[in-house]
Design goal:
mainly beta, Ubiq_DUF569-assoc, Actin-crosslinking, 5-stranded mixed sheet, 5 helices, Trefoil (Acidic Fibroblast Growth Factor, subunit A), DUF569, 4-stranded antiparallel sheet
């Protein structure tokens, strides 16, 4: 792809205005707002004999790798990591596909490098996947900042004229930021949740995400919240999936009698009373226990 032909090193910025970063553990790959660190710089290598397939090497001399490890049990996304394989195979090969001024990076098996948003553990994670929801289609789009140009292009490749650094995508320019979706600027406005939304019409929904056994860290803390104006359980479930970035979850509340989780199925409390709910992954042990108990989540 012409955008990478003259590039010696690049930075990749996700749809959430965060950079693809190689973690110092020399294995993990995450997103971070600090694009000035060396961990956000990736060296570009073209696969021999190809002008369209590249490898990206981190500052730790390890390759961006599409692994076969699931990111979360029951979810479709698989981990993207740094590796230094003995033999460079297709897991470290990416095909840039241009879409306007952005690119998608496709694995040799058809998945795309995806910058996840939403709540932990999804927030700031990077996976390879095929986005199926309209709300997450842009999560596979990346802005490319050419940090360093190849000084001596290979003689056997016809390169276009070198692209000056000033012509690369300006991550700080208002024009590059203004094109971002309002949905994601709301969802990823900061690395940590700052405050509850202002109370308006409707009710405030407070929610946490449970682990496989239904446990929630720091449930005593208010957690994440948003204002909800609907009246139906299915509307709330849809809104929670949008806010959390999670797709396959069961919306639960705790019994006031014994504190146990149970699926929210009937109706919302009257008079727009605030609610506290817990999102349980559909593939988790606690969700399977619901089925065993004859409770259809």
């Amino acid at each position: 792809m012409d955008l990478f032909l003259n590039a010696k090193s690049v930075r990749l910025r996700s749809h959430h205005d965060k950079y693809l970063v190689a973690d110092e553990d020399e294995e993990s790959v995450t997103q971070d707002r600090n694009g000035s660190s060396k961990a956000a710089r990736w060296t570009v290598e073209f696969v021999p004999g190809s002008q369209t397939i590249i490898r990206l090497k981190s500052s730790y001399n390890r390759y961006l790798t599409a692994s076969n490890q699931p990111f979360l049990l029951g979810m479709t996304g698989r981990k993207v990591i740094q590796t230094l394989p003995r033999r460079l195979d297709s897991s470290v090969e990416w095909e840039p596909i241009r879409e306007g001024c952005e690119v998608k990076l496709k694995t040799r098996y058809g998945n795309f490098l995806r910058a996840n948003g939403g709540l932990p553990p999804w927030r700031n994670s990077v996976t390879h996947d095929i986005p199926h929801r309209t709300a997450t289609q842009d999560w596979v789009l990346w802005d490319v900042d050419i940090v360093e140009i190849q000084e001596k292009p290979s003689a056997n490749i016809q390169h276009p004229p070198p692209i000056p650094h000033s012509d690369s995508l300006d991550f700080d320019s208002p024009s590059s930021i203004s094109g971002k979706s309002a949905h994601f600027s709301r969802q990823e406005s900061s690395d940590s949740y700052v405050a509850s939304p202002p109370k308006s019409e409707g009710r405030t929904i407070y929610f946490h995400v449970a682990d496989d056994s239904g446990e929630v860290d720091d449930e005593a803390i208010e957690g994440y919240s948003f204002s909800f104006k609907g009246n139906r359980v299915d509307e709330l479930a849809h809104k929670l999936k949008e806010e959390s970035g999670l797709e396959d979850v069961v919306v639960c509340t705790r019994s006031p009698l014994n504190g146990k989780l149970f699926p929210l199925r009937l109706q919302l409390p009257p008079n727009n009373a605030d609610m506290h709910v817990v999102l349980v992954p559909s593939a988790s042990k606690v969700a399977r226990d619901f089925v065993k108990q004859g409770i259809n989540p």
